[in-house]
Amino acid sequence: xxxxxxxxxxxxxxxxxxxxxxxxxxxxxxxxxxxxxxxxxxxxxxxxxxxxxxxxxxxxxxxxxxxxxxxxxxxxxxxxxxxxxxxxxxxxxxxxxxxxxxxxxxxxxxxxxxxxxxxxxxxxxxxxxxxxxxxxxxxxxxxxxxxxxxxxxxxxxxxxxxxxxxxxxx
Length: 170
Fold this sequence. Notes:
By secondary structure, the chain is of the alpha+beta class. The chain has helices at 2-15, 28-39, 43-55, 58-65, 71-76, 81-88, 116-133, and strands at 97-101, 107-111, 136-142, 145-152.
């Protein structure tokens, strides 16, 4: 697990031009803490940025977009994400994800181990995916999980999705 996670964090920090962090020499948590200190931001915000950055990686983006035709469909299938990730790699231990809807229409995402790291990462991923689908929503992290309040599911045009990068539009 550590090699895959380390490489992702190293690439993220390089692309985000975080100076002064000895990528690869520190464990992932210390690498992120050092980067957060360097940038003067809380570690959970940097981890949220990492989640959004992951969505910009084409292979990961395709895996995620394949999960739903629109943002709400994507959200309702989010509990399948750990198993989809296991299809690709068993090097990353992804906790189980549960979904619920409250009476006021909020979608709640909870993570089985309650990890603030996974909550922050998933929050960033959800923000990036909402933008990708053209959905206007408010995503709020709390100790109980992530609350998503979708205001406008068709706020902007969604990014075009094709299953293959080589697919040519008809």
